[in-house]
Amino acid sequence: MWSGTDPADALQRALDASPLVPRDGALGGWAAARVGGVDELDGQWGGRPEPVPLCLPPQVVRRRGTTVVPWRSHLLPEDVTVVDGIRVTVPVRTAFDLARRGSLLHAVTALDVLAR
């Protein structure tokens, strides 16, 4: 990461993780929403940064870390779009992934933000 960037900035964290996405994967969850322009999903929950979710095909091996988390996903071509050269999940797929991960409160909050 370039030293002049803010590592706490959600968009910057998503952009920094984007080179880790393989050709048949995509950024997912809050990172896909943030790259897509949803500023309210800032990659934090309870004041702590969440790892950047990478939707990866099952055969791709990547360890969970403090900065990225692999989500094993079979992505169909219609599940993915490209925003500014970055592969991200489409809004419906992003909403689906956010709704099925974490707590009910987390899911409802994320879906409410996406619906706006």
Strand content: 15-25%
Structural class: alpha+beta
Low-confidence stretches: none
Spatial arrangement of strands, main beta sheet = 1-4-5
Percent range of helical residues: 25-40%
Q: Please summarize the sheet with the most strands.
A: 3 strands, mixed
Shape: globular
Mean pLDDT: 89
Count, helices:
4
Radius of gyration: 13 Å
First-last Cα distance: 32 Å
**H/E series, N to C?**
HEHEEEEEEHH
Brief summary:
With 116 residues, the protein is of the alpha+beta class. It has helices at 10-17, 29-35, 91-99, 104-115, and strands spanning 26-27, 44-45, 48-49, 52-56, 68-72, 80-83, 86-89.
Write the layout of secondary structure elements.
Blueprint lengths: L9 H8 L8 E2 L1 H7 L8 E2 L2 E2 L2 E5 L11 E5 L7 E4 L2 E4 L1 H9 L4 H12 L1
Parallel strand pairs: 4-5
Antiparallel strand pairs: 1-4, 2-3, 6-7
Helix pairs in contact: 1-2, 2-3, 3-4
Question: Can you offer a commentary on this structure?
Answer:
By secondary structure, the protein is α+β, with helices and mostly antiparallel strands. It has four helices and seven strands. It has a three-stranded mixed beta sheet. A two-stranded antiparallel sheet has the order 2-3. The mean pLDDT is about 90.
